[in-house]
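FAQ

Q: What does a record look like?
A: Structure on top, sequence underneath. For example:
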């Protein structure tokens, strides 16, 4: 493991140069890896593992669109595709990639097949960190490990096919066999990670829940909506408001920020934009910091986890969710966005 300097702070990372695919294949040559669940993360990880030459099978409940998708992706029923319990039985490593709510309901079945020496693998620290709430308490004689790709399963697969890799974090909750470290790093390389950085289950879930509620999804939509509304209230048209709020950000600025950083962006914009951005960013930081503090303490107290367990296990969950998603879909801002996207030259002749 190499030490890397992140802005003055040293952290452990594992790169593909240091732990090449051949070493990962050698490490896992006697293992049967069962990927349980063929939702979003399941396909990305299972297909990358398969294409990387590992011995991998998929466990998925039958009579479901996900089963059909697995068949369409080339998994063969009875050979590489099984019902969940059968896959657990065959596996030496169980990659538990059901939805977080699904993991709670299938747990008694998975637990039954966690015989000594097997490994239980997660892509989220949720189930184990909040074990009093989820009831997922792994037996002491199995390895409990985590690789959490920092992005969607769709991106994991897409980037793999492009010869790139998505960064992942990895963690060990329990090392029963003395092999947990090699197993987790080999799996991280096998699923197509670019590099792996070290974390714990708890830090993974706290940062993940904060990030998705914060700048990755919750806060960003909140800031978009606030700016859009102010522009509209002041007489700007939907296309102008959308372009100045979202389109310019996603199409022009963010790709440059991804390449060079926001510091570069600030140094390479007009002097007018530069003056304004320098003057205003700290006001936005100060205005939102209390909300982020509240968010983090709700996550750390387990309240966010409980809210999601409670709401996702209600029978009318889907209906309520669809109502909330419709509100967003039907908002003027995102309807204007659909038109703006349609007008992009690549979609318009
Ligand atoms: N989404 C991502 O890209 C992403 C990124 C990083 C980490 N993760 C983590 O990866 C794990 C999987 O997430 P995901 O987004 O891929 O989940 P998802 O798409 O919601 O996964 C759904 C899978 O779980 C199965 N499932 C749900 N409830 C079930 C139940 N009660 N019994 C049996 N099967 C059930 C579904 O089967 P059916 O189709 O038959 O319902 C499907 O195969 C989670 O821990 C998540 O936090 C996800």
């Amino acid at each position: 493991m190499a030490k890397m300097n992140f802005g003055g702070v040293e952290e452990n990372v594992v790169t593909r140069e240091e732990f090449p695919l051949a070493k990962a294949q050698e490490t896992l040559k006697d293992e049967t890896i069962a990927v349980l669940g063929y939702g979003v993360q399941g396909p990305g990880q299972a297909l990358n593992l398969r294409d990387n030459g590992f011995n991998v099978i998929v466990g998925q409940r039958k009579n479901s669109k996900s089963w059909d998708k697995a068949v369409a992706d080339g998994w063969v029923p009875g050979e590489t595709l099984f019902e969940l319990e059968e896959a657990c039985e065959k596996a030496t490593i169980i990659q538990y990639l059901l939805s977080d709510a699904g993991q709670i309901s299938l747990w008694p079945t998975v637990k039954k097949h966690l015989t000594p020496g097997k490994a239980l693998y997660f892509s989220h620290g949720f189930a184990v960190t909040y074990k009093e709430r989820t009831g997922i308490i792994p037996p002491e004689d199995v390895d409990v490990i985590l690789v959490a790709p920092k992005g969607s399963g769709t991106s994991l697969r897409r980037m793999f096919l492009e010869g790139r890799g998505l960064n992942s974090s990895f963690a060990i909750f329990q090392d029963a066999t003395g092999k947990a470290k090699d197993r987790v790093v080999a799996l991280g390389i096998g699923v197509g990670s670019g590099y792996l950085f070290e974390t714990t289950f708890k830090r993974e879930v706290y940062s993940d829940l904060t990030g998705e509620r914060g700048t990755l999804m919750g806060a960003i939509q909140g800031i978009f909506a606030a700016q859009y509304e102010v522009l509209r209230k002041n007489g700007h048209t939907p296309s102008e408001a959308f372009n100045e709020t979202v389109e310019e950000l996603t199409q022009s600025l963010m790709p440059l920020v991804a390449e060079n950083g926001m510091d570069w962006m600030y140094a390479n914009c007009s002097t007018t934009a530069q003056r304004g951005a320098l003057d205003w960013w700290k006001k936005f930081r100060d205005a939102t910091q209390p909300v982020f503090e509240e968010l983090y303490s709700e996550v750390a107290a387990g309240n966010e986890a409980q809210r999601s367990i409670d709401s996702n296990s209600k029978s009318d969950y889907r209906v309520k969710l669809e109502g909330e998603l419709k509100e967003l879909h039907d908002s003027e801002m995102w309807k204007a966005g659909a038109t703006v996207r349609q007008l992009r030259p690549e979609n318009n002749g």
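Q: Is there anything notable about this one?
A: The pocket of NAP is lined by residues 37-42, 60-61, 64-66, 97-100, 102, 105-106, 123-124, 148-149, 152-153 (CB under 6 Å).
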